[in-house]
Amino acid sequence: MTKYRGTCHCGGVQFEIEGEFEEITVCDCSICQRKNARMLKVHESGFKLLAGEELLTDYQFNTHTAHHYFCKVCGIYPFHRKRTAPDSYGINVFCLEGFDQSGIPVRNSKGSTLS
Ligand SMILES: [Zn+2]
């Protein structure tokens, strides 16, 4: 198991994830394209929000299953609750401290065709 800490840009939102991270997902749905995010999937048992719950704004659209969280101070999107796997979080890898993307396979997810 590997552990990483993540933050938004202003540092108000802080979280920690733990798990086996074997792939990075790039999703082609309308919101992920605009965010240009690369995602790690982590089960909710491996996700801990350490600070900033009051700063998170929850954006929902379409089926209103997924929760897209972003920091209302700096506007950065650190993670979301997944629509296809509601017990898991999608984590924006660019928000993680010391996370090395090299050597981790990237999978293209067809989010656009699922919605
Ligand atoms: Zn922030």
Structure characterization notes:
The chain has one domain: Metal Binding Protein, Guanine Nucleotide Exchange Factor, Chain A (Beta Complex), CATH 2.170.150. The longest helix is centred in the N-terminal third of the chain and has 6 residues, at 30-35. Helices cover 9% and strands 41% of the residues. It is built from 2 helices and 10 strands; from the N terminus they run βββαβββββββα. The model has no long low-confidence stretch (mean pLDDT 89). It has helices spanning 30-35, 111-114, and strands at 2-7, 14-19, 24-27, 39-43, 47-51, 56-59, 67-71, 79-81, 88-92, 106-109. The chain is mostly beta strands and 115 residues long. Zinc ion is lined by residues 8-10, 12-13, 71, 73-74, 76.
- Give the helices and strands as they follow along the chain: EEEHEEEEEEEH
Small molecules (ligands, ions, cofactors) in the structure: zinc ion
- Across the major sheet, the strand order is 4-9-8-7-6
In CATH, what is the class? Answer: Mainly Beta
| Helix/sheet category | mainly beta
